[in-house]
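We emphasize that the prediction below concerns an isolated chain of 268 residues; any contacts that depend on oligomerization or on bound cofactors are therefore not represented. The input was used exactly as deposited, without trimming of termini.
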Amino acid sequence: MKGDFHIHTVHSDGVYTVTEIIKLAQNLDYIAITDHDTFSGAKEAIKHPSQLRIIFGVELSTDYYGESVHLLGYFPNPKTTDILEARLIKQQQHRIERAYAIRDRLRSFFNIDFDFDMIKNSDSITRGSIARAIIAEGYPYSRIEIFDKMIGIGRPAYIPSTKLTTEEGIRLIKKCKGLVFLAHPVLLKKTKPEAIIALGIDGIEAIYPANNNADEEKYRGLAHRYGLLVSGGSDFHDFDDGMHGVIGETYLSGNDLLDFIRKMDEFK
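Result of the prediction step, given as a token string:
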């Protein structure tokens, strides 16, 4: 059995609809829809007729002393998520305001503009959404170049996505009876995973496309040392986008998967 527990849809900055994602995931047994700061994709997915077991999830953007830290929340019972959803609605509004501000900076620093209509109907507008809109306008940049030169952390058009602290994010997910995992620790620049572990997470995303073997061994070691679960997933947004994995190619299996599902079932 295999499970990909980190997948994005058109409800945030993924390219594919929920229906398309489910078709693409036919080589898997489990998937989690984890759109950025919205449950919309997960809500649609759990209503979709499928042989897959679909986990209700979210990728929550938080701030840890100035660094963006993403948390993956998995919820055995979607009905327990009302408190977090209310906060996400505020977060989505902030993302809209941020997108306008990023567009202003792109105009000012790079003489770049994009059609806001392309992204305004997304439930959660991310920097990935903005990068895709820039490319659609015909500018000669790849997604990686747009992040590296313009909207990545520390670049002229960068604006943080949230004022929610990591501690608050963990507390919200747990209050909604969810399991909380540190997403892609390999991408952290300043923060040590141990600092986030100390805040009371349930697991760590040790299996991730950007990891090499030493990275995976390191994060598995942390999970073992602190009694955490291991999760894994592709962080799928699109094929060959240069920044994420392909659905079903990075996955959880074996005892890691059994432990994950067993814990989810205990939370019901």
